[in-house]
Q: What sequence folds into this?
């Protein structure tokens, strides 16, 4: 079985005006542009009166070598989402308001194809390989996925800040 190490966790939480469709597309496109394959595991809507509650779970995966894979898990929670009208450049535009919370988890997956699992001796050798032979490469990949997640969260925060000011 592949070995998974959670490297970093993060969260975005913002209440206010945002365009859900544009946010959804921005995050999806950003992941695709970085080489990730995005899998939407859950999408549920609960309508209460004139507002919605959304729960979305995404898993984005990117192969970085024959042995390593980056995984970013995202759990969206949008509460009290309502359609509103705002003035933008003297035009009335339809958008959304509510509370957006997205939790992120960056995971480094080693031996994702489980090639080192066939026999106990291979599993032992994988431990030696990881600990002594490729330790510096593992450290580098951990830094890389941590940096990617931090940059990704910063981009989303900037996007939401711009959306709220429009």
A:
């Amino acid at each position: 079985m592949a070995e998974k190490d959670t490297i970093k966790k993060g969260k975005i939480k913002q209440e206010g005006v945002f365009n859900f469709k544009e946010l959804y597309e921005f995050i999806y496109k950003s992941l695709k542009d970085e080489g990730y394959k995005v899998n939407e595991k859950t999408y549920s809507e609960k309508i209460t009166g004139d507002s919605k509650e959304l729960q979305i779970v995404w898993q984005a995966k990117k192969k970085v070598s024959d042995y390593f894979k980056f995984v970013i898990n995202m759990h969206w929670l949008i509460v009290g989402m309502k359609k509103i009208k705002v003035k933008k450049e003297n035009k009335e535009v339809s958008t959304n308001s509510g509370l957006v919370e997205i939790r992120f988890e960056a995971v480094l997956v080693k031996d994702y194809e489980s090639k080192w699992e066939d026999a106990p001796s291979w599993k032992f050798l994988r431990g030696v390989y990881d600990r002594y032979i490729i330790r510096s490469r593992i450290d580098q990949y951990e830094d890389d996925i941590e940096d990617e997640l931090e940059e990704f969260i910063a981009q989303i925060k900037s996007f939401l800040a711009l959306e709220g000011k429009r």
About this structure: The first strand starts at residue 3 and ends at 18. The chain has a mean pLDDT of 90. Residues 56 and 147 are 24 Å apart (CA to CA).
